[in-house]
Amino acid sequence: MKSPSHPRDRGIPEATVARLPLYLRALHGMAERGIATVSSEDLATAAGVNSAKLRKDLSHLGSYGTRGVGYDVEYLVYQISRELGLTQDWAVAIVGVGNLGRALANYGGFVSRGFHVAAMFDADPDVVGDTIAGLNVEHIDALEAVIKRRGVSIVVLATPAAAAQEVCDRVVAAGVTSILNFAPVVLSVPGSVDVRKVDLSIELQILAFHEQRKAGGPLMAVDTQ
Amino acid sequence: MKSPSHPRDRGIPEATVARLPLYLRALHGMAERGIATVSSEDLATAAGVNSAKLRKDLSHLGSYGTRGVGYDVEYLVYQISRELGLTQDWAVAIVGVGNLGRALANYGGFVSRGFHVAAMFDADPDVVGDTIAGLNVEHIDALEAVIKRRGVSIVVLATPAAAAQEVCDRVVAAGVTSILNFAPVVLSVPGSVDVRKVDLSIELQILAFHEQRKAGGPLMAVDTQ
DNA sequence: ATCCCTTTGTGAACCGATGCACAAAGTAGG
DNA sequence: CCTACTTTGTGCATCGGTTCACAAAGGGAT
Ligand SMILES: NC(=O)c1ccc[n+]([C@@H]2O[C@H](COP(=O)([O-])OP(=O)(O)OC[C@H]3O[C@@H](n4cnc5c(N)ncnc54)[C@H](O)[C@@H]3O)[C@@H](O)[C@H]2O)c1
Ligand SMILES: NC(=O)c1ccc[n+]([C@@H]2O[C@H](COP(=O)([O-])OP(=O)(O)OC[C@H]3O[C@@H](n4cnc5c(N)ncnc54)[C@H](O)[C@@H]3O)[C@@H](O)[C@H]2O)c1
Prior knowledge:
Chain A is α/β, with parallel strands linked by helices. The first copy, chain A, has eight helices and ten strands. Chain A is 42% helix and 18% strand. The model of chain A is unreliable at 1-7 and 221-225 (pLDDT under 50). Chains A, B: Homodimer.
């Protein structure tokens, strides 16, 4: 760090942010196996990326490596966790407790680090009042009140597609600015709200596209003309 | 089409492929509502993208629009479906019938167009033999035989992380070249195999990153030095 | 203290994707 | 047939991201 430029620039590329969780997961595995330091080469392999990319990604957080040695695993875990905001525990709410919502609620894995399910909501009277993974399912009418009271800042949307936009609007109105959407609809939200989507059917269609190419590829030089 | 270049170039950009399912979904909705033609502007809005991007995407498939009018909805549905390989019905197998595997199996939505669940596998004797969504759960030992017999070409992996790579190897050995992975591991596969991953915890971490920025952003100009 | 070896951090070239802006192509109406 | 209007398809500038390749930095040995 000589003179100009920022040592740790605020403004990490989006592509880098999307990979940090991958590095973090690999590092956790290494820490558990008692590995103290790791080279960019080894960490990159474990995370399934190329080592130049990994080094550039980490360089956006700061100069946390030691030349000739590598990165201290514990220290890097801490730095990435801090950067991702995982040093605090985020309260997540699940809206729509059907097939998928239940699976998510029962999923131990994502409670692991940095997140916990703080509330669950449904509109169906048969479902409201059920206890799932030790938590009571609230009625959707209580959405605003419960979100405020329990400090929910991330909402997982697992309602049918038809209800998603309406529920989304209420969630946003309640002050939530981060949404993970499983319903197959394009949600319309204010610019200040982040929506990420998980869409099974899109993923399958992309796979089908490539599968078709593989099948027909080499032989299928048949032009339509 | 004057002289050089391909009218319909094989080699559609990956980013375009990932959006085609979005357009298709919007078009299906319009077809159901009886809309016969649609402009790039309207279709783009429905799909949540910008219209120049949509037109460029569609131009990779061919010149299917009419200037001054727009695109014929039915025709475009057919062309995109064909391009994505949805004019055939793909046999999908689900491996790992736990919380998530069950939710996926019971999910009607993805059977809808172009895909059907042709087999389900698990290693747990208590689960094998169960009937879920009208289909018998097979033992994982029968993987290779059943995959061949039923012509499975896409596998959805929903086993615990620890088992994922081993199952993946068997699936690949059985000739499958398209995998949708829900387990939080980096799968290692030959280059000819396509793997797409769905990772809840990565999505949440990305949301947490941005949420943290929003919270501390404007005020948090505190430098660590 | 010097030399050799390893590995980081980054400048620079490259590549694919995005979005603007407009000519070309079509419709509709007189 | 000609004019006015609409909307596509694309050339081009730009941007963000990836990859290469190497100078600089540090550790360890002698
Ligand atoms: N199940 C899957 O594997 C899967 C996969 C991909 C996508 N999805 C999508 O995820 C969503 C949920 O899928 P599912 O299989 O769990 O459906 P589901 O029908 O089993 O569950 C939906 C739940 O949402 C509740 N609900 C309906 N309207 C509501 C409202 N206004 N407010 C609150 N709750 C409401 C229903 O009572 C029901 O319990 C759907 O949009 C589906 O397309 C599911
Ligand atoms: N449940 C969720 O919401 C969720 C969300 C994100 C990711 N995931 C991931 O999806 C995977 C499945 O999650 P889950 O909650 O359904 O777990 P689960 O434990 O409920 O189910 C896993 C199933 O896989 C079976 N299995 C184990 N080893 C197997 C093998 N070698 N061959 C075949 N089957 C085998 C088990 O018998 C079990 O039925 C996990 O990797 C989890 O991390 C789950």
